[in-house]
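INSTRUCTION: Work out how this chain folds

Token vocabulary: learned, describes local backbone geometry

RECORD BEGINS BELOW THIS LINE
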Amino acid sequence: MARSSACPGAVSESAPSRKVLHVDMDAFYASVEQRDAPELRGQPVVVAWRGARSVVCAASYEARKFGVRSAMPAVRAERLCPQAVFVPPDFVRYKAVSRQVREIFARHTDLIEPLSLDEAYLDVTTTKTGLPSATATAEAIRAAIREETRLTASAGVASNKFLAKIASDWRKPDGLFVIRPHQVEAFLAPLPVGRLPGVGKVMEAKLAELGVSVVADLRALGALALEQRFGRWGRRLHELSLGIDHNAVEPERPTLQVSSEDTFERDLPLEQVEADIRRLAGKTWAGYQRELQRSPGRVARTVVLKLKTADFRILTRSLTAAHPPADETELADIACALRARVELPAQTLFRLVGVGLSGFAEDEDGAVQSDLFEHEPRSD
């Protein structure tokens, strides 16, 4: 049963001109599996490969009741919910459904900022359809998703991105929640500070030392005190406590990194991962070629090596050179060399390795190596 709600309470505030939606598909991968296999409906579905090295890609709401969450080790998910039905992920199908949803968005606005396959921001200040309000637009989008994909989506409606994202989670699953401009401060006041973007466990602990646990506490400290304590981030925190966020919906966000990573079948010492680094460098290079074809003037100058130890500690090492890697081999050579910067005991074991290219910038010479375009990589 779809639910729709608007935030109660009111605080006088001039209404911003922007109208933003955050649309989030409900338990997306698991819901696609349940849609396509009726015998899975009502079952605790976990989208993951079985095994000690696997992590959960998604969990149905039935599985979430047992504490199963995305990114959790699959073995832990199985302990929490022994009756779970494990389904291997099928990203080809998920991407196809995501394209369907994106086409529905595009009927209403061109200002679409995808965050992943299953969620996006939409600026609906002005729409193609002429619907009377952002709420009506959200309702129309959710109805079309239900009719055309047989899936459900939750949506948040607000005057900016961070509020819309909070709102979309308020009536999940299959819900719609509206935060009207004059309700913002009253809505935010009782929320834990961890609900604000950028406030993680470390910042929560620092704020707790100041007696801050909810947004109202943060607001009471004032901009000056927060800025003195945390610098520019402190002023940003004060703005967020008031519901202020000027970040626009960005339809064409530039690529920040192209990367590939993989989890080993068994934990390995660093000296034994070269073959995996070179294999992943090949995948990263193919992705980099596709990015260069889309944006020929931008090149990546930073090579990144990512490692995860057996006890789940994540390490990254990077090198920014005067010139970008000329080919796949040079990328692999640099990534392998970065292992020397890992200052851990030789007996340390690793469960994951990744190779990335970042530091995208305009090519000052206006030229990109011609061999990048000689071979068309196979589409995912």
Residues 8-16, 365-380 have pLDDT under 50 and may be disordered.
